[in-house]
Amino acid sequence: MDGKLMVMLIMAVVYFLGMILLGWIAGRWIKSVADYFASGREIGWVVLGLSAASIMISGTTLSAIPGLAIESGFWTGFNFMFSSAVGIILFGVTLARVIRRSGIYTVPEWLRLRYDEKTRAAAMVSIIIALFFTTMAQIVGLAAVVAPITGWPFWLAATVSTAVFLIYLYVGGLWAVVITTVAQAVIVCLGLTASYIWAWVTYGSWGDVLAKTANVAAMDSFGGRGGTFGLAYPSAITVAVIWLLLWFATQENWIRAIGARSERHIVKGFVFAGAIIAVFFTVGMVMFGYYAMVAIPDIAPGGKPVNPFVGYGAYGMLVTQMPAGLNGIALLVGLSAAMSTASVILVAAGAIIMRDVYGRYFHPTATQEQLVLPGRLFTTLFGVVALVASVFTNFDAGFLLSLLFTFTVPPMVPVVVGMLWKRVTSTAAFWSVTLSCLASLVWLLYPATPPLWATSAHMLWVAIIVGLVVLFVVTPFTKPKYYGEKNFDRAVPARPAGEVA
Amino acid sequence: MMSAAKLSETDRKILEAVAKGFHTFAEIADANIMEGAAVATAVEDLEMDGYVRRRGYTGFGFNEIDLTDRGRGATVLSDKDKEALKAHGVSSTALEVLKFIRAHPGTTVVDIAESLRESAIALVPHCNALISAGLVQDSGLWRRTFTATAKGQQVAS
């Protein structure tokens, strides 16, 4: 192993040990399940903002944004990150406040209370599948960062790096995730800034580089390859709606909202997160794609990418050009990006399994203290199963993230419509979740080359359209909850006299 | 219709929490160390029986409730709570919390809970009520710490 790789390996080991230490510190604050999954409602806006922003800069976005820029132009990459910033701010000023008022931790739990048990069960299955595939995607991304510097095989790189965040998660729960993701967000922001400066000094200003790569659609039309209003990925409107719904549906954000000190902290925190994403991860990340094209002309000889996927290694390729020390910092950026997202997703998965499965079916009378150990065990078990699946299957991260869209969006349709229209019925909500899940899965797996979601319409639109049609068709013919009845009078009790709850 | 005598323990706790000034499901749940889901389930029965009403059926008001006349009639508050609410707009527990904060500036909710032998999560809505009333201010990057304001010092003394 040469000296450059040795420095990177030492930095990675120190980083891993540091994360476990932070988890151990957080573990001392855990007294109940509310501490484990909601940080005792103590998260302030600065911490919330940094922690929420860190999920955006995952291992997959680090590779996707420069790749999108190379493949589809400046505005495609820009839209992707900017839409995310707008989406997280909208979540913070609307739904997050409603979630905080409700005291409800999970989307399935919300659906049970707004609709019924059947709708909760359908959503629970859908969301657990989505979280499972997302966790797998993050583990694959993490191993892809660790394997090249250690020389380890994929399975060992995946196992060691997953073990690190499983240890700090087991010990410290959401507190550990919050502390480590804040540390990771700071590392990512500083590391990316250093990398931006290095690229600027080495290869020229953004304007110079855009001019050099003008034949690669450097400043193409707004919307890039997909156009502005197309339904296929990555049109500007599709990317914007993807992010809006993903932020609304992301279980991790629900848990962050629940763990915040107050609504004031929620609004400030998510606006702060949006600002961090806009400032640190938007133009600079896109420009990595252009710097990579200048630094390594083989990526796009003659102004055309050699294949649609080569750009996804642009960040890694730039890291190989960096001087010793800076490449170690860039490695930590990659590790932080992947681990922050993976760990927070695991906490969300643990919360759902513990509350919607264990707490619901196996131990409904458990006290908060009694739920701490099962919460830890289920979170760890979920991570181990996802690790095994990552090692023994050959799914690429892009396909795994497609499954995330397929299974995350359907439960959100009745959540959002139910908040705007009191008449929506439980029967309509159940069929909306079930049929939109099936429809978007069929759309994703339909054997077409190129896939339907890249040529006709993204599965997100399929899920939204099928979900809305079912809700609006079924609702008028089925019975709503008492407050959705036409003759419901808030002044007169609706329950017949003499009936006891 | 469910008579006041047939209200469950959970129902009574919810009505009492609302009377103390906690209106969101999360505040009511925390104050009684319950799950938000348990509050939401109980609220449906209480609303159908005319004890409470939601502030809205869509949007932000869906998870907030007020007592109706019937609900007020079925709620029994201690004299200490009535007095504290009338004088300062917060519960007697919140005033106990305020006294502790005044004596220990920069304290955390866990310290307060240990001193008052309460659950930390149950004290969170009381701390927030003190902040809303301008009696306490919070700070702290990681753990939340509390200090009494000038108005809070005056009330506590």
Q: Which band does the percent of strand residues of chain B land in?
A: 5-15%
Dominant shape of chain A = globular
The number of helical segments of chain B is 9
List the secondary-structure elements of chain B in sequence, H or E. Answer: HHHEEHHHEHHEEH
N-end to C-end Cα span of chain A: 72 Å
Structural class of chain A: mainly alpha
Salient structural properties:
heterodimer; A: mainly alpha; 21 helices; 0% strand; globular; disordered C terminus; B: 157 residues; 5 strands
Descriptive overview:
Chain A is mainly alpha-helical. In chain A, helix 3 (45-56) crosses helix 9 (154-203), helix 7 runs parallel beside helix 18 (397-420) and helix 18 (397-420) packs antiparallel against helix 19. Chain A is built from 21 helices and no strands. With 157 residues, chain B is mostly helical. Chain B has nine helices and five strands, in the order αααββαααβααββα. Chain B has helices at residues 9-19, 25-31, 36-48, 69-74, 79-88, 92-103, 109-116, 120-132, 150-156; strands at residues 52-54, 65-67, 107-108, 136-139, 145-148. A three-stranded antiparallel sheet of chain B has the order 3-5-4. Chain B has a two-stranded antiparallel sheet with strand order 1-2. In chain B, a hairpin with a 5-residue loop joins strand 4 and strand 5. The longest helix of chain B has 13 residues, at 36-48. Chain B is globular. Classes of the chains: A mainly alpha (501), B mainly alpha (157).
Provide the fold topology.
The complex is a heterodimer of chains A (501) and B (157).
Chain A: H1 3-27, H2 33-38, H3 45-56, H4 59-72, H5 74-93, H6 95-102, H7 107-114, H8 117-150, H9 154-203, H10 206-212, H11 236-249, H12 251-259, H13 263-280, H14 283-295, H15 314-321, H16 326-362, H17 372-392, H18 397-420, H19 426-445, H20 452-455, H21 459-474
Chain B: H1 9-19, H2 25-31, H3 36-48, E1 52-54, E2 65-67, H4 69-74, H5 79-88, H6 92-103, E3 107-108, H7 109-116, H8 120-132, E4 136-139, E5 145-148, H9 150-156
Antiparallel strand pairs in B: 1-2, 3-5, 4-5
Helix pairs in contact in B: 1-2, 2-3, 2-8, 6-8, 6-9, 7-8
